Amino acid sequence: MREISIDILANYTFTNKVKIALTFASDLGYATTTVDTQGVIFRDNKILLISEKIDGAWALEGGTDIDFSPSKIVVKGVKEESGFDVVAIHLLAIMDKNHPPEPYHVYKLFICFEIVGCEAIVSLKQAPLSF
C-alpha cells in the first residue's frame, strides 16, 4: 500500500519517490488533515500584509502552531510581526488547499480580525496597509 501511495504521489506532484518515501517514514502519527490559519485584517478599506522572513514576499499573517488555536496563532503572529493587538471577529472562509496535490491535505481557515490596540512596529521594510 505504501509503494502504491508513493507512486501515485510521485506521479501527481512531480516529486522524487525517495523524498516521498522519507516523508512517509518520518511521519509516525495518524494521517490527518492539517489546518492552516490566515488572518484577514482590514483598516480604512486596506488590508494588513506581513513581509515573509523567508523570501520577503507580502502575505497575510498566519500559519500553524502546536498548542495554539487558529485565532491565537494569528493574534500571536500579528503582535510579533506588526505590533498590533487584534481580536478574532468571524470566520470568512474555509478553503481546501490540495491543489496542486501535496502529500498532506491542508484546510486553510481565513478569519477576520480587528485591530484593538498598540502601534505598528516601524522597520526598514514595514508592511503597508494597502491592497
Secondary structure: elements and pairs:
Elements lengths: L1 H12 L3 H10 L7 E10 L2 E2 L2 E2 L6 E2 L1 E3 L6 H13 L2 E12 L9 E12 L14
Parallel strand pairs: 1-7
Antiparallel strand pairs: 1-2, 1-5, 3-4, 6-7
CATH class of the largest domain: Alpha Beta
Number of helices: 3
Second-tier CATH architecture of the largest domain: Alpha-Beta Complex
Query: What is the share of helical residues?
Result: 25-40%
| Low-pLDDT segments | none
Q: From the alpha carbons, calculate the radius of gyration and give it in angstroms.
A: 18 Å
Proportion of residues in β-strands? 25-35%
Topology order in helix (H) and strand (E) letters? HHEEEEEHEE
Describe the sheet with the most strands.
Answer: 5 strands, mixed
Provide the CATH superfamily of the largest domain.
Answer: Nucleoside Triphosphate Pyrophosphohydrolase
Q: Span between N and C termini?
A: 47 Å
CATH topology of the largest domain: Nucleoside Triphosphate Pyrophosphohydrolase
Number of extended strands = 7
Mean pLDDT: 83
Q: What count of structural domains?
A: 2
Structural class: alpha+beta
Global shape:
elongated
Structural features, described:
Helices cover 27% and strands 33% of the residues. The termini are far apart. Strands 1, 2, 5, 6 and 7 form a 5-stranded mixed β-sheet that branches. The chain has a two-stranded antiparallel ribbon with strand order 3-4. The model has no long low-confidence stretch (mean pLDDT 83). The protein has 131 residues and is an alpha+beta fold. Helix 1 crosses helix 2 (17-26). The chain has 2 domains: 1-29, no CATH class; 32-131, Nucleoside Triphosphate Pyrophosphohydrolase, CATH 3.90.79.
